[in-house]
# Entry
Amino acid sequence: MRLKTLYFTLILIGFQLKIYAQTYIPDPNFEQALIDLGYDTLPLDSFVLTANISSITNLDIAEKNISDLTGIEDFINLTNLDCSLNQITSLNLSANTLLTELYINDNQLTTIDVSALAALKIFWCFSNNINQLQVNNNPNLISLVCWNNNLTTLNVSNNTALTVLVCEENNLTNLDISQNSALNRLQCGNNLLNNLNLLNNTNLSYLACENNQLTTLDASQNTALKTVICNNNNFKTLDFSINNSLSYVDVQSNALCTLNLKNGNNSAITYLNFSDNNFINCVVVDNENADFSHWQPNNFTNYTNTVDDCSVFVPVDKLDNFIGKSFTLPNLTNGNYFTLSGGAGNPLTAGETITASQIIYIYNETICDSNESYFNVLITDADYYIPKYFTPNNDGNHDLWEILDNTNSINNISIYNKYGKLLKHLLPGNLQWDGTFNGNYLPTDDYWFVLVFNSGEVLRGHFSLKR
# Structure
């Protein structure tokens, strides 16, 4: 009988120990939060009954000025934990293996280990100082929000269920999302990315990749795209012709040469901004006569519905050929002077005096393309100069048969065809001919001139018109 009594006594003591087991809670603000939720009672004594917390599944202690979460290990049935907007510097969740939702954003964490949380679905850790984040052991993750940390790498290849990824404002140089085919929302702006492959992300509807170093973006497989924010990159061309669900497009401050928005549903685009793309020539749209006043910049007018009409145009200055004793290079608006084609040879500067006969090129280059013009400088100190040919084809070079009269000694010039028909009579101040008669272009042939000097002397000769 004594043995049985002793046995039951030991069981009772064990049961009482279990009931009155306590969990150490050193942070008074954490304990006060538990008191406010009814899981503990005053006074603050750094302990809470373990039995009061072990069955809790949902704990919201956001914005409680907590710095130490010691004791969280006894919340063994937690599925949802929100401890955001506190001052927590370290956190051990290895015992909380049932967690499916974890919100630890806006704390002071430099590291966080979630490797034991295989059931985790929603993980928000933004606005901390985390420099490494391993989510390999979280295959059920559907939402990862880790923006505004110090991450240089992020591996989400095992998170194939991921639908939301927000990793903005880190130091990422690479982001591989090829395994995340379920991804619906991607925000990766304000990083150091120079490549972004979206070919496997066919469910993507929201893309924000602004303020990176991207040069290309292939959206041909992302037919669900509704929002695209990719301003402040280095895109030269963007083609959204396949994305007929677009409603919001921000491509400001890039290096765009061409923008194709001909997707068959331009009326759905409620916001478009392609400002600060200084070299864009035209934008391809469904209907070039539609109302684009709600798009930015609203003073842009060169819309077209044909891709072939949207070629890159690089402006370049043109100068007439010169004949004389010396030539001073004038200032240019578009381009620079060079002695060879393509910006090669020696550069020349405005204000420089040319004293040797040569061809001078004006070359202008933008990030999109290049363009050039050229003109001939013939240096001569003769009293007059008569060119032997001209090519009136409107290319800006040799388009006129033009006489140089350095000493104002010419009285008049008459031009004839080979049959002796008078075609043009030239007087001082306008000693040039464009190769026409009665407004009609004359054919390639030899033509004759009779030049009368002020002295009465007459000079006859011929020249060629070439087309």
